[in-house]
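Here is one chain, start to finish.
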Amino acid sequence: MYDPSAWRDYFVMVGGGSAALAGLVFVAMTLHLDDIVHHPVHRHRARTILTGFTAVFLRCGLVLMGGQGRQAVAVEIVAVLVVVEFVLYRSLVEAIRTSDRGVLVRGVGSFACLVLEQLGAVILFAGGIWGLYVVAIGMLSSFVFMVTGAWLLLVGVQAMQAQESTRA
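Its structure:
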């Protein structure tokens, strides 16, 4: 039997955490906006990190809405993930044109987390309540890519600034 109340604390914690992290990353990005806007890899990381944290927050909020059955929750999760995958794909195509192959590897890893989460939503839709565990694993795995991506973004911006100051 689908019991959304058993998952309330999980989705409150993850949704709140993603909102807080999105805010922190947003502030950090605004401090280096010029460097991020003019570098394709930095722009890709910034776009996908903010999209990722925002999408986690949205999915958690949708799951927490009252009066929904498991199928409605599953459809909402898949719908948000399709948008995220579209943004990630478009951004990845732009960033891959650079020589940074790490972007491709991390992009494939991020896609794998999103697909895992979608698989969990499909399982939930079909009646397997354990699909929420798969959703949770995919969602938490995505955090690894988003947090490390934020770190790589900040380190990359700092390295670029150090190179520019050395030239000057």
